[in-house]
């Protein structure tokens, strides 16, 4: 029974050793053993790997970071690690692995070794990074376009605000002109009455008032013309005032829509930034 179990275990470990890349470290990161599969992936022989330190297979940026120190501290405390990792081959190229680091404990519960089982995912990671890079470029272009629209919207909003202020000024000027036209109309009405009274007095004066009658008649004619001109100006000013008021309302409506669009653009920009951050996280390594 024991012999049969040992045979089955031997077959199992032989199969694992033949199909997976396996490397073993002491608790401090020194390589104790690397099978043929791992040696072929990394470009060294199994004999060359024995005695090397784990850091010699890692990118310099990772080795010099606090994450690397914590990585081995955690393994030394018996905490397993599983993630995609970047390693450097003997030729200096990047090798991407789906790696599982498993601390091996002795009878006292102390870590005596760390076994790493890895699968080569370099091809998949290369495609992923290229896709993420292209995606970031697209997002950056979309963000730039959105920023241009945002800036244009802000400029239009400012111009609309200035136009609104100028329109208010025009409206006030027209109202002042209307009051002047009303005043002219009032004077014309008084002049008509004055001319009428002068005509009556000229008629009473008979032959002596004939010259005065001509002047009185001209005063009435001038008053009538002034009154008609004042009415005409007042009507035109009313039309202009209505158009200006309508324009002011339209400007306010457009300004409101632009402000709403500006808020939407800002929200869209935030979404782009979130997407870019997500794409960046796809390529985070240990």
Summary keywords:
Chemotaxis protein, five-stranded antiparallel sheet, rod-shaped, single chain, transducer, alpha+beta, Beta-Lactamase, Helix Hairpins, 286 residues, PAS-like_dom_sf
Structure description:
The protein has 286 residues and is of the alpha+beta class. The chain has 2 domains: 2-120, PAS domain (Beta-Lactamase), CATH 3.30.450; 128-281, Methyl-accepting chemotaxis protein (Helix Hairpins), CATH 1.10.287. It is built from 7 helices and 5 strands. The protein has helices at residues 2-19, 36-42, 46-49, 60-63, 66-76, 122-205, 210-281; strands at 21-25, 31-34, 81-88, 94-105, 111-120. The chain has a 5-stranded antiparallel beta sheet, with helices on both faces. Helix 6 (122-205) runs antiparallel to helix 7. The radius of gyration is 47 Å and the shape is rod-shaped.
List the helices and strands and how they pair.
Elements: H1 2-19, E1 21-25, E2 31-34, H2 36-42, H3 46-49, H4 60-63, H5 66-76, E3 81-88, E4 94-105, E5 111-120, H6 122-205, H7 210-281
Antiparallel strand pairs: 1-2, 1-5, 3-4, 4-5
Helix pairs in contact: 6-7
Domain PAS: 22-51
Domain PAC: 81-133
Domain Methyl-accepting transducer: 112-286
Unreliable spans? none
Task: Please tell me how large the radius of gyration is.
Answer: 47 Å
What would you give as the CATH superfamily of the largest domain?
Answer: Methyl-accepting chemotaxis protein
When the domains are counted, the total is: 2
Instruction: Supply the helix-strand structural class.
Output: alpha+beta
CATH class of the largest domain, named: Mainly Alpha
Estimate the helix proportion, in percent: 55-70%
Order of strands, widest sheet: 2-1-5-4-3
Q: Could you tell me the mean pLDDT?
A: 74
Main beta sheet strand tally, sense and closure: 5 strands, antiparallel
Termini gap? 44 Å
CATH architecture assignment of the largest domain: Orthogonal Bundle
């Amino acid at each position: 029974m024991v012999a049969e179990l040992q045979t089955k275990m031997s077959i199992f470990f032989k199969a694992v050793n033949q199909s997976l890349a396996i490397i073993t470290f002491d608790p401090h990161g020194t390589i104790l053993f690397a099978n043929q599969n791992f040696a072929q992936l990394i470009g060294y022989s199994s004999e060359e790997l024995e005695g090397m330190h784990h850091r010699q297979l890692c990118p310099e940026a990772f080795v010099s970071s606090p994450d690397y120190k914590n990585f081995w501290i955690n393994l030394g405390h018996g905490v397993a690690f599983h993630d995609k990792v970047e390693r450097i081959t003997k030729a200096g190229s990047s090798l991407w692995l789906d790696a599982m680091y498993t601390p091996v404990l002795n009878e006292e519960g102390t870590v005596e070794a760390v076994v790493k089982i890895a699968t080569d995912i370099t091809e998949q990671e290369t495609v992923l990074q290229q896709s993420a890079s292209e995606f970031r470029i697209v997002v950056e272009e979309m963000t730039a376009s959105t920023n241009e629209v945002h800036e244009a919207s802000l400029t239009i909003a400012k111009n609309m605000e200035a136009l609104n202020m100028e329109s208010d000024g025009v409206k006030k000027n027209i109202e002042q002109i209307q009051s002047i036209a009303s005043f002219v109309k009032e004077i014309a009405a008084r002049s008509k009455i004055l001319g009428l009274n002068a005509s009556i007095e000229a008629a009473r004066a008979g032959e002596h008032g004939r010259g005065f009658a001509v002047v009185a008649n001209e005063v009435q004619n001038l008053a009538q013309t002034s009154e008609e001109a004042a009415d005409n100006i007042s009507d035109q000013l009313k039309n202009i005032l209505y158009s200006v008021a309508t324009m002011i309302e339209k400007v306010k409506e457009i300004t409101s829509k632009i402000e709403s669009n500006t808020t939407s653009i800002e929200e869209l920009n935030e979404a782009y930034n979130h997407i870019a951050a997500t794409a960046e996280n796809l390529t985070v390594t240990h």
